[in-house]
Amino acid sequence: MAVLELAYSELGQPDAAPLIILHGFFASSRNWKFIAEKLAGSHRVFVLDLRNHGASPHHALMDYPVMAEDVRQFMMRRGLTRASLLGHSMGGKIAMWLALNYPNMVNKLIIADIAPVTYSHRFDETLSALKMLPLSSISNRKQAEEKLADAIPELSYRQFLLQNLMLRDGCYQWRVDLDIFERSAPTIAAFPDVGGRTPYRGLSLFIAGAESNFVKAETVLPLFPNAQLKALAGAGHWLHVQQPESFLAAVLDFLGA
User: Fold this and answer.
1) Residue 169 catalytic?
2) pLDDT tens, 125-171?
3) The domain 8-119+190-256: what is its CATH number?
């Protein structure tokens, strides 16, 4: 298993209880800057760039066991024998897999709008649109956004995806490897076979957007029987962006309990 050393940001006091934040597919640590800064008031916060994202190294293998091992090794290198985990979407699945396989390393588990199941959601159209973007003829980000409008109508989603577009030596290029993302997308939408693994009985909170249908009690409780489930009004899958204050309140209340 090829473990990678992940890029990260660290906030808060070094003697505070550790909390690791794991972002979703196509995202990076910087998408969690606002939330991390707020949580750093009470915790030592590590915001990771997961493999093939942000400033972390690229590798052809991107599945949940290897990504969870990246996080486990990150903890071990920093002497973190135990930490709380906060994961959104793909990052939530990584956190769940880590908790199921190494429960003693997890203090409290917070999962944002995802469950330990395989979803039918596909990224084909999104990835096709990104790969067809004529980077050599684009002179600014606004042009890129306009060229993606037909294939990706939702403005906020286009802007989120275009955070992966960077200017280097006067030319735009993707920070992420779209070919790796395309090959890995079915694995990211899935969840590994749990086999005969023991359910995680630690303290866990599953926060769902009330306008999302990704989280259901019957898909969570068999593997996380002590989980609390909470729905945030006025939020969909991007609940930490759409309702940041409500999201923060729920996380802080759970961590402080």
Assistant:
1) no
2) 999 999 999 998 998 999 999 999 999 999 999 999 999 999 988 89
3) 3.40.50.1820
